[in-house]
Amino acid sequence: MSRIDDLIQELCPDGVERMPLGEFATLVRGNGMPKTDLVENGVGAIHYGQIYTRYGVWATETLSYVTPEKAAKLAKADPGDILITNTSENIDDVGKAVAWLGDATIVTGGHATVIKHDQEPKYLAYWFASADFYVQKRKLATGTKVVDVSAKQMATVRIPVPPLEVQREIVRVLDKFTQLEAELEAELEAELEARRSQYEHYRSKAFHFAGDADVRWSTLGEVSFKVSSGGTPSSGREAYYGGDIPWLRTQEVDFGPVHSTGITITEEGLRNSSAKWIPKHCVIVAMYGATAAKVAINEIPLTTNQACCNLQIDPLQADYRYVFFWIASQYERLRGLGEGSQSNLNAKKVKDFPIPVPSLEKQREIVALLDKFDALVNDINIGLPAELAARRKQYEHYRDRLLAFKELTV
What we know:
Strand content: 15-25%
Largest sheet: 5 strands, mixed
CATH superfamily of the largest domain: DNA methylase specificity domains
Number of strands: 23
CATH architecture of the largest domain: Alpha-Beta Complex
Structural class: alpha+beta
CATH class of the largest domain: Alpha Beta
Strand order of the largest sheet: 2-11-7-9-4
Number of helices: 14
């Protein structure tokens, strides 16, 4: 930090000028290029969805390609350019940037913008991951189900632009932090994977009821006194969204508790759709999409979309957490009942899925055992996941500190 502090004091003692991105860069909005255009060989291509799922701050190779004929019609990114997302389902992924540092010109498609500039590429990409940018993009973002920050809006973002020497020193330090973080996370992930394997072993053992005469077999529908799904208010009606009613989507169903939802709806949206309230402690099974057959428990009353199968468990027959752990243990089997490329389920298949039903006392013993392992492996406040989160938070703190400058006053 002292080297950077000395450089800032030497090269910009009165502060660092903040400039609108559009004043020192040209923004070229991408077009076209659905995933079906991607091939195994050809011209390097980065799909916008890959920027926030597959790439880090910078890249020298692409994961996908398009044919030369397709590439001729797409936006070009030259070495040193930044590719940034304009669209996502959430505010965090909008504005995710990757600096292209490969040797060749590549292409990108719709929902992404190429930023051509004269600054240090990695400095800009790191800044686009900072808290400073996050605050600004929240003010610019539009939409509810789909969040968008257009290239025109992106051009208005004010970025601290210190001298290149300062930018390069910041990049050197952040690269070192990134490398150390990656090494530590790899060690922790390996330990976490070992704990997961141990957890799965004990879960399998806990649900082994072979030869147990005190266990009866039933179905998820039979141990529930109500099974329902939800609905989606019309996405074209702004008055239906942004209210006080939590509204759960299947992508938020991921083997854990649900304490809040990414999107909320209004009373008007509730009245004009099939969405309906469910009480807390339902067992929620995702039926469609990438999360099909995953399960969650809602810790608050909420509404859901139509792709959620909501099981209100009969407490006289089963403990709701026992049902949750059983479905989680049967993920591959339940998903295998789905149809199509995304293994889509329906409510009947979920209701007809079998479940062993021991005594309530035995169920609670199983829940108590699995709760301990589940907390160690999955709870963000306990064990290894907390350590991983702490490492990331520490890195983000230093990154944001390095990218915070005294603003030049004129």
